[in-house]
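Hello,

Following up on my earlier ticket. Below are the two sequence lines again, exactly as submitted.
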Amino acid sequence: KAGVTQTPRYLIKTRGQQVTLSCSPISGHRSVSWYQQTPGQGLQFLFEYFSETQRNKGNFPGRFSGRQFSNSRSEMNVSTLELGDSALYLCASSSLASTTDTQYFGPGTRLTVL
Amino acid sequence: GESVGLHLPTLSVQEGDNSIINCAYSNSASDYFIWYKQESGKGPQFIIDIRSNMDKRQGQRVTVLLNKTVKHLSLQIAATQPGDSAVYFCADIGGSNYKLTFGKGTLLTVNP
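Thanks for your patience. The regenerated structure is below:
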């Protein structure tokens, strides 16, 4: 089975722009979560989707949004980019609805905001 | 808010030695714990997990121990190899929350 894929792998943007990141979960997985990883804050939860519905949301401003499509693929969008948004954005997928189902991570998208 | 923390930010061991990485958690409602390994330039890779109704679980060269009394989690790696060099994260989920809470990570360096 193919793993979680994320596109693009690297992205450079300037302040004020917006960006859309894409995540394709493992085949058959219906839950997709997004995390932001920075050296200072570590891994922080952004949001989680299951069957096109957002079930959980982390403590990030409204500039961060996401969605999930009927094929379980997910996108996240960051509007009005700030320098502090530079980070590795990770997507994780899991198979079922239970909180104890293992989340498998993709390689991440490295976003640099100049 | 609730958080998962690590006792040591770095750990250096000799090849062939056993490694122990520790983690403390604070959410008493946590019922599922996972260890991830992250190599440079890659996403976190699942290593082993344990549910709160267990106190020990073994995998291939890895063992996770859970002490719910003191809210402590540890990862033991037997016969550590250079390929084990990476950052190790513990994470937990509690209750009906689907959010993984991660610790800051421990950098494991294996010296040949």
